[in-house]
Amino acid sequence: MFVKQISVFLENTPGSLRELTHLLGKNRIDMMALSVADTQSFGIARIIVVDDSIDPALAILRTAGYTAKVNNVVCVKVADEPLGLCHVLEDIEQIGASVEYMYSFMRATGDCALLILRLSDQDASMEKLTAKGVEMVSQEEINAMG
């Protein structure tokens, strides 16, 4: 029950994120979640879109000269209340996994928040978290939000 994420390498220069978002937006690609991380020489934008937009987004990005790839991440529901995130992080710790990175969804979902996680040993971690009752969100559920 993985979710597909587009990772895009960006130059670490003023305006590069705006240019990326403009390119996607003018081509009607709706970003549902976005994270940006940087190093001294480059940045990485991590983007969640509906399934039907993944291939067109990759084509648009690559045609424009960006290096972009798709990888799998986990999306979990977290109680939107104090300690909600802490409880999920405790579950991750108890199964022996670690969080490589995490970011939140931009769409409102009611009484819970959605988090995108890249976990160590993702296949086993996802099985163990599901067994602990952590609610996963599928790509199909994300598509329905779009």
Using the CA coordinates, give the radius of gyration: 16 Å
> What's the arrangement of strands in the largest beta sheet?
2-3-1-4-6-5
Query: What class do helices, strands and sheet pairing give?
Result: alpha+beta
Order of helices and strands: EHEEHEHEEHH
What kind of sheet is the major sheet?
6 strands, antiparallel
CA-CA gap between termini: 18 Å
Q: Percentage of helical residues?
A: 25-40%
Protein architecture, described:
The structure is a single chain. 36% of the residues lie in helices and 34% in strands. The chain is an alpha+beta fold and 146 residues long. The mean pLDDT is 92. It is globular, with a radius of gyration of 16 Å. It has helices at residues 16-26, 51-63, 84-94, 122-131, 139-145; strands spanning 3-11, 33-38, 42-48, 67-79, 99-104, 112-119. It contains five helices and six strands, in the order βαββαβαββαα. It has a six-stranded antiparallel β-sheet with strand order 2-3-1-4-6-5. β5 and β6 form a beta hairpin.
